[in-house]
Amino acid sequence: MIVPVPIHTAKLRVRGFNQSEYIGNRLSELSGIPVNRYLVKKIRRTASQKKLNAFERRRNLREAFQVQERVDGRRILLVDDVFTTGSTMDAMAQVLREHGAAEIFFLTVCIGEDKDALI
């Protein structure tokens, strides 16, 4: 299944849309792979990742995501708009593994530059 990176409900109200969900929906239309925008929920408001270094990004996302149901044995494609340090994908992959995901892949549209990256 395709799982877009969620944004917090407060941010969704302000922005009006989730760009990762938009990408996931278009990918689902093209591939026939179902998208599940409800599987992972962002349960904690976090600071904007833009100006944080890799360590701060990881700390910022700690316990920010919650999986809503078991995904035992499922193959999951995480979709996000920008990949900089991988912190968001790591945080989501961790909670999905804890809920039984067999394989986790990711797709992003843009790659950001982080001069302070630890990787």
Describe it for me?
With 119 residues, the protein is of the alpha/beta class. 34% of the residues lie in helices and 23% in strands. It has four helices and five strands. The termini are far apart.
Question: What does this entry show, briefly?
Answer:
34% of the residues lie in helices and 23% in strands.
How would you summarize the topology of this molecule?
Layout: E1 2-4, H1 9-15, H2 19-31, E2 40-42, H3 54-61, E3 65-67, E4 75-83, H4 87-98, E5 103-111
Parallel strand pairs: 1-4, 4-5
Antiparallel strand pairs: 2-3
Helix pairs in contact: 3-4
Question: How would you describe this structure in keywords?
Answer:
119 residues, three-stranded parallel sheet, two-stranded antiparallel ribbon, 4 helices, 5 strands
Helix content: 25-40%
What is the count of helical runs? 4
Strand sequence of the main sheet, in spatial order?
1-4-5
Question: Are there runs of 5+ residues with pLDDT below 50, and where?
Answer: none
Oligomer: single chain
Q: Sheet with the most strands? A: 3 strands, parallel
Mean pLDDT: 87
How far apart are the termini?
Answer: 28 Å
Report the order of strands and helices.
Answer: EHHEHEEHE
Question: What is the general shape?
Answer: globular
Counting DSSP E segments of at least 2 residues, the number of strands comes to 5
Kindly provide the radius of gyration, computed on alpha-carbon positions and rounded to a whole number of angstroms. 14 Å
Structural category? alpha/beta
Strand content: 15-25%
